[in-house]
Write a structure and sequence with these properties.
77 residues, 0% strand, 77% helix, mainly alpha
Length: 77
Amino acid sequence: MTPEELSLEEQVERIRRKRAGQHDSTKVRMALNTLFLVLAAVGLGMYFFGGDNHVPALIVIAVGMLFKVVEFILRIL
């Protein structure tokens, strides 16, 4: 039976069954996103209020960006 021949309810149920078999990475993604937001806020605070040396702040922001990239990759998978 082709997807065009299925009713809307049957198509939705088919998609739900397919997604149920996949790994749910929502909690991991939320944790990574929270880490990114915290590191970004800390890095910006260090950058603007830390004095003339901005290198440590940029390192903190870069580490936060790495967490964001990992979260993005998990979202695609």
